[in-house]
Amino acid sequence: HAERFLRSLLLLPLFVLGVQGWLFFRLPHPDDSRPDNAALVAAGEFLNHYGGSPFAHLILAGDKQLFYAADERVLIPYARIRHRLVALGDPDGDSAVFRDAIEAFYNFADQHDLEPVFYEVSETCLGLYHDLGFKLFKLGERALVSTATFTLAGKQRGSLRRSVNQAERAGVSMMLEHPLSEALWQELQAVSDAWLDSKHTAEKGFSLGRFDRDYLQRSPLALIRQGEQVVAFASLMPAYGSREQLAIDLMRSLPTAPKGSMDFLFVRLIEHARDSGYRYFELGVAPLSGVGQSRYACVSEKVARLAFEHGNRFYSYKGLRSFKEKFGPEWQGVYLAYRSRSPLPGLLLDIAALIGGGYRRLMSR
Questions:
Q1: How sure is the predictor about 48, in pLDDT bands with cuts at 50, 70 and 90?
Q2: Which of 309, 334, 332 is nearest to 319 (CA)?
Q3: Which of 79, 147, 261, 296 shows a CA-CA span of 20 to 30 A to 248?
Q4: Which of 213, 211, 304, 289 is nearest to 252 (CA)?
Q5: Half-sphere CA count of 61, side-chain side, radius 13 A
Q6: What is the residue-wise DSSP string for 232-252?
Q7: Quick one: fold of 148-278?
Q8: CATH no. of 37-143+286-363
Q9: pLDDT score at 302
Q10: Residue 191: Cβ within 10 Å count
Q11: DSSP code at position 134
């Protein structure tokens, strides 16, 4: 045994040299530093000039890196999780060169020995991802309310109408405010903290807004008051380059908010979007909604359908779809574009960790 031990010691220097060689020759990771305020100001100017996707406003949250491509006519926000670069939504900017920009991002990831992923891409650009070798998985459906046709009248809107009336009888009102006083920021912080405590959760990010003053002050906030007290609020994500859609982002309410307050908020925001010239008001995504419904759907989407049908113990998939459905929206699919050799379960777990603030925070819940 002593002889074997001594022979093994002779192999130790070779092992150390091998590890050092791998560390020397492996491709370095891209810069993970977050954009500073100057970079965010430049990104805002880019979006105002070229336009952006429904997720464009989330760039200004500052928690994603910025990849410019196609002679800086396209901007792709992304974040790294383990060995993946995850882009948020479709590219922003000049759609005529989206294909070149997606390919450039693919090459950028490949140069660093990382996997490119596009999270929550639209139906409009699916052909581009397919042509570049990405595999597609349907994540759910986005709810878009037509502002021109939305109404509280009629039998189908009876439940929503009663909910709004109940909130009005409780004395709630809505107002858009910007900028906010220090006292009002403190009040909103208390509402946010109470909501997080009641849901036993923490702030998220990447594809979701979070309570951060620097981010929230970049657009008006919708405040719901009962008398003088703020009982709920929401931030808005304006469209860039068009009046196609106005979207809701961060929503927080007190556990004691009157019943119907959130329905009241949504109805008033839809009316505000209509009055401001927007074609649609977006209610957000219903995860796994509309996934795997066909008998010919791929196996992974059929499994996802089972989660939608039977997984409400862990997440209210059906409840969220039902809440959005009462506003009579149009539904548009959102997809995950990823490399075919990447196992889907591990990829989805990585994205959940990215949104949740990392694996350490995800596992501690």
A1: very high
A2: 309
A3: 79
A4: 211
A5: 27
A6: EEEEEE--SSSSSEEEEEEEE
A7: Aminopeptidase (3.40.630)
A8: 3.40.630
A9: 55
A10: 21
A11: E
